[in-house]
Amino acid sequence: MCDTLPTVLNLAAAGGIDLASASDMVTDAMSALGMGTDEAVMMVDQMAKTSSTTNTSVAQLGDAILTIGATAKSVKGGTAELNTALGILANNGIKGAEGVRGDIAFAQSCLETGNFSFAGSAVTLEQNNFCGMGVTANGLKGNSFSTAQLGIRAQVQHLKAYASTEPLKGECIDPRFKYVARGCAEVVEWLGQKENPQGKGWATGAGYGEKIIDILKAILATAGGAAPSPAPAAVPFMVKVSIPDLRIRSGPGTNTAATGKFTGVGVFTITEVKDGPGSTAGWGRLKSDAGWISLDYAQKI
After folding, report:
1. Packing angle, helices 148-163 and 78-92, rounded to 10
2. How far apart are CA 92 and CA 99, in angstroms?
3. In 34-179, which ranges are continuous DSSP H helix?
4. How far apart are CA 8 and CA 13, in angstroms?
5. What is the three-class DSSP state of 206?
6. Are strands 237-241 and 258-262 parallel, antiparallel or unpaired?
7. Is 260 helix (H, G, I), strand (E, B) or coil?
8. Where does residue 27 fall: left (phi above 0), alpha (psi -120 to 50 degrees), or beta otherwise?
9. Beta carbons within 8 Å of 122's beta carbon, 6+ residues apart
10. Other CB atoms within 10 Å distance of the CB of residue 32
11. Of 219, 184, 190, 196, whose CA–CA distance to 86 is shortest?
12. In whole angstroms, what is the distance from residue 296 CA to residue 281 CA?
């Protein structure tokens, strides 16, 4: 413990987390990744740098790296590559211009690349394609991008094409954007063609969207344990919706009927929050009694 104490202190300071959490993160990483003290110091430095230059926290980075860390020794670039990918996803995701959740994009990348090992994947690290884009048949190599940032930006744009009919905020670099039936997969589970009500979607494999959700739940889980139950949200509270076509449903879940109405862009008051299928952040009841909306697409203010 004495050897790792400086590393723990540095991690706690960089991430604004308590010493116990920092200690658990360091010791778990050393155990899961087979790291020595020097390697743990390097990983902490990478996490601090990524956190300071992107829209993600040290705690979030640590949880994600530990979740897929069992394969990190076979990943080209190791934890440095994972930190870079996580940082780019955070910048291009939910806190970026396109409104796509970065953690969902990251979970999809884990699925498509074999936790960034690219073992059994149709794409390679050199392609900077972390989502299998363009692999529309067996034997095809898919699209390639000159940098990881461009590859991830194209992935985020492609996810937006499925989730929304809103135009892109930035220049379109997704070579397959035009082929998507816009807004056909407003929830992650519908990214699989077999589960999509219109028979459309990102992939043909059964349960594709559910697999992404399962990976996301594992990332959000506490290290070595089950995902914690979220504390009940204090209501009422206000949320900002930035997309015009957020569907209003009669109940908390995609298994309830759509009302045929949309929120539009604006600020809304939520009076009740419940869990339900189709939303990882839960469903919020609108004060107007118009129905329920997915809080995945609303920002609390």
Report:
1. 40
2. 8
3. 37-53, 58-67, 78-92, 102-113, 148-163
4. 9
5. coil
6. unpaired
7. strand
8. alpha
9. 132, 135, 140, 141, 142
10. 19
11. 219
12. 5
What SS3 state is found at 189? helix
- CA 9 – CA 103 distance, rounded (Å): 27
pLDDT in tens, the chain (301 residues): 445 566 667 667 766 777 777 777 777 666 666 666 676 677 777 677 766 666 566 666 666 555 555 444 444 455 566 666 656 655 554 444 577 777 788 889 888 888 777 877 888 888 889 899 999 888 788 999 988 778 888 998 999 999 889 899 888 999 999 999 999 988 888 899 998 888 999 998 889 998 998 888 776 664 344 444 444 557 788 899 988 889 999 999 888 998 999 998 888 999 999 988 888 888 999 998 899 999 988 888 8
Encoding tokens for residue 221?
């889980």
Strand ordering across the sheet containing 292-294: 258-262, 247-249, 292-294, 283-286, 266-274, 237-241, 298-300
Asked whether the whole model's pTM tops 0.85, one would answer no
